[in-house]
Amino acid sequence: MKHLKYVLSILLISLLLVGCGKEKPKEEVKEPEKPKEPVVETTSLSVIGVGDALIHNGVYIDANTYQTDANGYYKYDFTKMFTYIKDVIAPYDLKFYNQETVIGGKNLGLSNYPNFNSPDEIGLDLIKTGFNMVNVASNHTLDKFETGATYSANFWKNQEGVYAVGNYASKEERDAVRIEEKNGITYTLLGYTYGTNGIPVPYGKDYLVNVYSDAQAKADIEKVRDKVDIVMVSMHWGTEYTHVPTEEQRRQAAYLASLGVDVIIGHHPHVIQPIEFIDDTLVIYSLGNFISAQDGINKRVGMIAAFTINKTTTDGKTTDISISDVKGDLIWTHYYYYTKFQVIPFNKLNDSILYGYQSIYNEYKPIINKTNDSRIQTGFIE
What we know:
- Helices cover 26% and strands 31% of the residues.
- It is an alpha/beta fold.
- Strand 14 (301-314) and strand 15 form a beta hairpin.
- It is globular.
- The model is unreliable at 1-21 (pLDDT under 50).
């Protein structure tokens, strides 16, 4: 028994010695995690715009179909006037124009200068052409007084997919913050006019037309600036028939830029004025006339302008907003003895349509980029 105990002790000691001699398994060395690459994404939004739809009686008479609707009013068709323009604006996301003359309801009677009233079809047909952003605040918004302005506001409110500004049917609509989004870019458009040709805005109903003031613009912009990527402002301003922006236009443009406005789109002078930058703010001082029956080469040469809004996000957060591909070109309102109205890009003209069209183009084209800013391209319509 003693011998057995001795043997067992020897075995136990041997096992313990073997156990003590075993090497501990090496701990696995983890490689440090590589920092994740930031996810950078870019998106863009393309914008194109034209100037004043100034619907003199010559224009709407030319559009008259001489058929009547259920209420006995003549029906109008303007679409043939914009055939060339439809193709030019088609590729763009946002397509702007200025509705200079009020759409006040046919029951008030269509009318010419100085107190205009235009048929619904001009708005409807320009929407069919592709336009989806409209300024309605002009010196002619009150030409048919409160009744016409209210009709206009309701007309535009009922056009699906159209962003119309400057003329509202109620204070609530006027004060609402309207934010739209396209291609991941949020934007807002505000619209103002310098005045209403001396027609007083009805007391307590200043929502019918946005008359510009620094204070009102500041309040409107501050309400939305931090909620959107891009703030655009449509300005009905300046002095008629001059290609040079006034000091007041320049002052207002600088003020709006200081409030963080990204793009200013101007109209009213009925002739074109330059495109410029104030720091990073794009200013189109005047797009001129889009369509009208005004005489004079300067009033029949209009501008079509385009630009691209770019947005960069890093890990889902906006890191950069910029404007690029700024372009301007010329269009011509063609008519023959106040008939056969058509808006035609200069590259579609020839001497049989407009004699000397090339020299006219060469005369007016430099107005677009008077400062020779390398960021502004001219002559983009091919």
